[in-house]
Design goal:
Layout (H helix, E strand, L loop, with lengths): L5 E3 L5 H8 L5 E3 L5 H5 L4 H8 L6 E7 L4 E6 L4 H5 L6 E5 L2 H4 L18 E9 L13 E6 L3 E10 L20 E6 L4 E4 L3 E9 L1 E8 L4 H13 L24 H15 L2 H10 L20 H9 L3 E3 L6 E5 L5 E5 L2 E5 L4 H8 L16 H12 L4 E3 L1
Parallel strand pairs: 1-2
Antiparallel strand pairs: 2-10, 3-4, 3-5, 5-6, 6-12, 7-10, 7-12, 8-9, 8-11, 13-17, 14-15, 15-16
Length: about 400
């Protein structure tokens, strides 16, 4: 079978990415990220410390017997967990690291050509020599950024649709070897894998790997979540009472008129502004339940204190770990989502939001109407007081 893994000289543009790679084929970029980028990310020792805390979700995977015997423990861990694993054949994996180690979130800006609104989290793994989670298949897109060390990846030549797994294990490991390409990665290399391309990484030198995952919901999840959203809106969750029925729907038959009316009723919801508002809320809800909540700052600022900070020359920034999602309305204006909340605005606010999404500062020099345009002032103050924005000098 011919090779599918493409070797690129640099990370693709958005045009190249969607035309040639997204949902189509994997690629590798050697040396895509400079050493100064990698050096600023979480270290192996910091990752181990994070796995001992209660909030992060962490796993410790151990292998033995040529990868036929696997075990998986779940954190939080203690020092003795690491003292007993030895020097080979184990991996530590921690989810949502961008939320707990903000410097690691700096990776995300290098992948703005991908749909950041679909990004789930940055999972970071430390693996000893021989460490692996086995050959497996993911149902999401992932960029694998190599930090410390060296790993060998095997990537299937085509998507796997009939995967079967070794029975009786705590993790999903394919019961056969992968037929595909082999590639060694070192610091700064980036490997992109579309969904369902089987892959296996084996550590050659102690390694830290950063997995940026883009996870799309199932259609059933979208339907049920939107239905729940409608049920919580006063006056929108109305009953179907058979308006417009004719003799075609007498007895036990649902006539064409009833089918068409029900489709129209449901379609009205999907074609409304309400659906767009819900989408930006849905896609900014964290998969880690402990990270949701739209939490107010303990040191909440009132408007006067906020204005004083702006007048003193301070700038507002969106931290890289904060996820914004926007969509435009057909009738004009747009909607911003943050932490499962939405804000409908007109086009005058759009340049400011676009600047923030680029992680660039905004201040009174660049946006003097922040103080005097009521909707902008109210928005940035609320975003600041709910941890979406931070002040910098």
């Amino acid at each position: 079978m011919s090779s599918t893994l493409k070797a690129l000289n640099h990370l693709p543009s958005a045009t190249e990415f969607y035309e040639y790679y997204w949902n189509k084929c994997p690629f590798i970029v050697k040396g895509a990220l400079d050493d100064h980028v990698i050096d600023g990310l979480i270290s192996a020792d910091e990752l181990a410390g994070l796995s001992m805390e209660a909030e992060p979700r962490s796993r410790l995977v151990k292998t033995a017997g040529k990868y036929h015997d696997w075990s998986c423990g779940f954190g939080p861990f203690e020092d003795n967990n690491f003292a007993s694993v030895g020097d080979e054949d184990w991996c530590l994996l921690v989810q949502n690291v961008e939320q707990f180690h903000p410097d690691t979130a700096s990776l995300l800006k290098y992948f703005n050509f991908a749909p950041r609104w679909l990004m789930d989290d940055v999972m970071v793994s430390y693996s000893a020599v021989g460490g692996s989670v086995g050959p497996h298949v993911d149902n999401y897109h992932v960029f694998l950024v190599q930090g410390l060390g060296k790993r060998r990846w095997t990537v299937s030549n085509a998507p796997i649709t009939d995967e079967t797994y070794i029975e009786g294990l705590e993790i999903k490991v394919l019961d056969r070897q992968i037929d595909g390409d082999e590639i060694e990665v070192t610091s700064g290399d980036v490997l992109y894998l579309p969904p369902n391309f089987a892959h296996e990484g084996i550590t050659l030198d102690p390694a830290v790997t950063f997995s940026i995952g883009f996870l799309g919901p199932k259609m059933s999840e979208l339907f049920s979540a939107f239905a729940q959203y409608i049920s919580e809106k006063e006056g929108l969750d109305t009953r179907y009472v058979g308006t417009g029925l004719s003799i075609d729907s007498a007895g036990f038959e649902i006539g064409k008129d009833a089918v068409g009316h029900l489709q129209s009723r449901l379609g009205n919801y999907l074609n409304s502004k309400l659906f767009s508002k819900w989408l930006v809320e849905f896609f900014t809800e964290s998969s880690h339940q402990d990270l949701n909540g739209y939490i107010l700052r303990e040191d909440e600022m009132d408007a006067d204190t906020f204005d004083t900070a702006l007048r003193s020359g301070s700038s507002l920034n969106k931290p890289e770990y904060v996820k914004f999602v926007i969509t435009t309305f057909e009738s004009g204006g747009f909607c911003l989502g943050f932490d499962s909340h939405s804000f409908a605005m007109d086009e005058t606010v759009f340049p400011l939001i676009k600047t923030l999404m680029k992680e660039q500062p905004v201040n009174l020099s660049t946006y003097p109407n922040m103080l005097y345009q009521l909707d902008i002032h109210k928005l940035v103050l609320e975003l600041y007081n709910h941890h979406a924005l931070e002040f910098s000098s």
